[in-house]
């Protein structure tokens, strides 16, 4: 997901510089099905999107023209769940009526007697739910309104034999015991499910959509249906994310948390008022059919772990076929707000750039579609979010937005890899998704648009560091959550890259993706990949920056210069005291410049807490600076990295690295 927030930076340099700059920036997600189809010419239609494939129980395999041989479908994931759903949007655009036939297959080695379902719309049921109390009714810049109340009612729950299971349901609150929170429910099954066996249930439900807030709801006639159906939780097998015993991973819907679910198959029929156009996860299996003022769409997706859809009568639809190395064939579908209809090429270029770069760097994009939804001006609560093969951009608020447009699309498509295929647990290890996606986003923005991240400024945002490996609700505020799982997490990855080099870092990221795609890896799994690729232990680095809340801080503590004579020649002995105040020791360059213009750079491994560096030279020392190239990106206190030597102690002023360049950097970030 993309956090969009404003931070005030107040840089006071002992009365010399007073600078307050408000910097706004975005971080941003998407994905779909594994089959490659022969691509027809792109449609110029701005109304109903054409059918992607004929109606079938499973997606058809199209004969390839060069060989005449149809490829054999293969599962990419374990497909633990299978959903067959029908959902209808009422005329008031405020309610959904749905039913589903859901099958869960026991992936473990033990018999399972209980199922857990996430009922996410109940997060908006009242101000007393866990989500609302933790978030304060605010997520990013979006605030809940008086109409941002919603819920999910389970109307029926039966076995295939018709046995009523509703009396067996119990709402549970494993994280905080909040009895007003009904986002997680436990079902005691009438018959246990043996290993490798499955259970199928029929469910009927009703959803009251909130006025769009926190990723779902309505805004006027626009609808975003995210987390809209009863979703089975993840049953983790032994070894998954370091588990020593298998069992359910269940949590309530929290103020900061996103989602975690298992891979499977989705076949979904969506019924809407006749004027509506629908965007959804997966691909459309037939042309939409209409009668009695209504219209039905049919979508199919497999090897995905969620299903979302959006609908509006105002969407301006555009579609293009795209292929590249690692992207064997995908239809990029745009569902634009009319205000951004003329920006189609910018959206397309961002999507193509992201898909091609991620495929080149990490691995193949295996789905046949990618849909991009642009919400209307008042629908930004649905913006900047990722779902399998479907992402949302930020709302169309400006006719000519800055690079926020591209950055958000690039970020959200990055989530197709780290949220989508790698499928990290966003409840407990959000940094593995958001931090990795932010890291990848920066690389695409630099490669495709020449926009380099200002890591010095970004490091200065880190005012409240916290461990990255912790539940999302353990952070003290949304600001602390965003600072750490997006920004500090990204800096941790850049810090690894700066130590191992670009080529080795590329191998680390690709190896991690290839090893854990369609699985659920943990922080420890990533550390093992880093150690295997580099053939080096990274215990101290991960202990300090991932499992703990450390930032790196080095300072020039003092400079002493005294004249001396050696062999009849007048020299100056300059002694610089350098301290490591925080962080994990790593090789740090210290630059000393003398009054005659000569420069000496020494490397310190920082294994100790401090070091004294002494240099004999024909001229006195003018200044000393730590890490002039800012390779130590986790240093968030640059003001103590520099000291002049030629001022009395009482008037000595510590300067951050190049104040003028710092100001230019700050002003340069205003277009983020």
UniProtKB/TrEMBL annotation:
InterPro entries: M1_LTA4H (IPR034015), Peptidase_M1_dom (IPR014782), Peptidase_M4/M1_CTD_sf (IPR027268). Residues 46-60 have a biased composition (Low complexity). Gene3D superfamilies: Neutral Protease Domain 2. Residues 348-537 form the Peptidase M1 membrane alanine aminopeptidase domain. It comes from Paenibacillus harenae. This is Peptidase M1 membrane alanine aminopeptidase domain-containing protein. Residues 43-75 are annotated as: Disordered. It holds the Pfam family Peptidase_M1.
């Amino acid at each position: 997901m993309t956090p969009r927030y404003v931070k005030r930076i107040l840089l006071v340099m002992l009365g010399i510089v007073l600078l307050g700059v408000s910097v706004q920036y975005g971080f941003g997600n998407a994905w779909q099905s594994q089959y490659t189809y022969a691509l027809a010419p792109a449609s110029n239609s701005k109304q109903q999107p054409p059918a992607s494939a004929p109606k079938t129980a499973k997606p058809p395999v199209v004969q390839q023209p060069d060989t005449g041989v149809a490829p054999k479908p293969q599962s990419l994931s374990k497909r633990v769940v299978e959903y067959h759903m029908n959902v209808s949007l009422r005329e008031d655009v405020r309610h959904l009526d749905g039913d589903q036939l859901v099958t869960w297959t026991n992936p473990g080695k033990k018999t399972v007697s209980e199922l857990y379902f996430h009922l996410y719309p109940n997060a908006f049921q009242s101000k007393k739910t866990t989500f609302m109390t933790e978030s304060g009714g605010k997520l990013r810049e979006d605030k809940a309104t008086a109409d941002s109340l919603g819920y999910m009612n389970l109307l029926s729950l039966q076995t295939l034999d018709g046995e009523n299971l509703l009396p067996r349901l119990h709402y549970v609150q494993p994280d905080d015991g909040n009895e007003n929170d009904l986002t997680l429910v436990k079902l005691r099954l009438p018959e246990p499910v043996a290993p490798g066996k499955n259970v199928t249930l029929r469910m009927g439900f009703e959803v009251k959509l909130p006025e769009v807030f926190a990723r779902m709801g309505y805004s006027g006639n626009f609808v975003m249906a995210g987390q809209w159906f009863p979703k089975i939780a993840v049953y983790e097998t032994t070894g998954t994310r370091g588990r020593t015993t298998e069992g359910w991973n269940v949590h309530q819907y929290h103020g900061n948390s996103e989602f975690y679910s298992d891979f499977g198959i989705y076949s979904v029929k969506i019924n809407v008022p006749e004027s509506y156009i629908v965007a959804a996860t997966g691909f459309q299996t037939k042309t939409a059919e209409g009668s009695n003022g209504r219209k039905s769409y049919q979508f199919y997706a497999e090897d995905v772990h969620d299903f979302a859809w959006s609908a509006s009568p105002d969407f301006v639809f555009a579609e293009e076929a795209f292929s590249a190395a690692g992207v064997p064939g995908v239809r990029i579908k745009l569902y634009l707000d009319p205000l951004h209809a003329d920006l189609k090429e910018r959206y397309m270029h961002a999507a193509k750039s992201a898909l091609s770069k991620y495929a080149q760097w990490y691995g193949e994009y295996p789905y046949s579609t990618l849909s991009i939804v642009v919400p209307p001006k008042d629908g930004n609560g649905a913006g900047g979010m990722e779902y399998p093969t479907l992402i949302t951009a930020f709302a169309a608020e400006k006719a000519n937005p800055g690079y926020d447009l591209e950055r958000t699309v690039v970020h959200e498509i990055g989530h197709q890899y780290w949220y989508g295929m790698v499928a990290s647990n966003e409840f407990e290890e959000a940094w593995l998704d958001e931090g990795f996606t932010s890291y990848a986003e920066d690389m695409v923005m630099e490669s495709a648009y020449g926009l380099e991240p200002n890591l010095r400024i970004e490091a200065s945002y880190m005012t409240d560091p916290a461990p990255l490996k912790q539940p999302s609700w353990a952070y003290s505020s949304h600001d602390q959550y965003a600072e750490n799982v997006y920004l500090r997490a990204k800096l941790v990855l850049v810090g690894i890259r700066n130590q191992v080099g670009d080529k080795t870092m590329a191998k680390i990221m690709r190896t991690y993706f290839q090893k854990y795609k369609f699985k659920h890896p943990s922080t420890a799994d990533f550390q093992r990949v880093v150690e295997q690729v580099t053939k080096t232990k990274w215990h101290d680095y991960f202990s300090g920056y991932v499992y703990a809340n450390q930032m790196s801080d080095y300072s020039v503590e003092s400079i002493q210069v005294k004249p001396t004579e050696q062999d009849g020649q007048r020299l100056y002995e300059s002694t610089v005291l350098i301290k490591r105040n925080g962080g994990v020791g790593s090789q740090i360059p210290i630059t000393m410049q003398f009054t005659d213009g000569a420069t000496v750079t020494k490397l310190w491994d920082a294994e100790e807490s401090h070091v004294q560096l002494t240099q004999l030279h024909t001229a006195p020392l003018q200044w000393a600076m730590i890490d002039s190239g800012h390779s130590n990106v986790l240093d968030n206190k640059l003001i103590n990295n520099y000291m002049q030597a030629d001022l009395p102690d009482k008037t000595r002023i510590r300067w951050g690295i190049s104040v003028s360049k710092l100001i230019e950097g700050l002003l340069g970030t205003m277009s983020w």
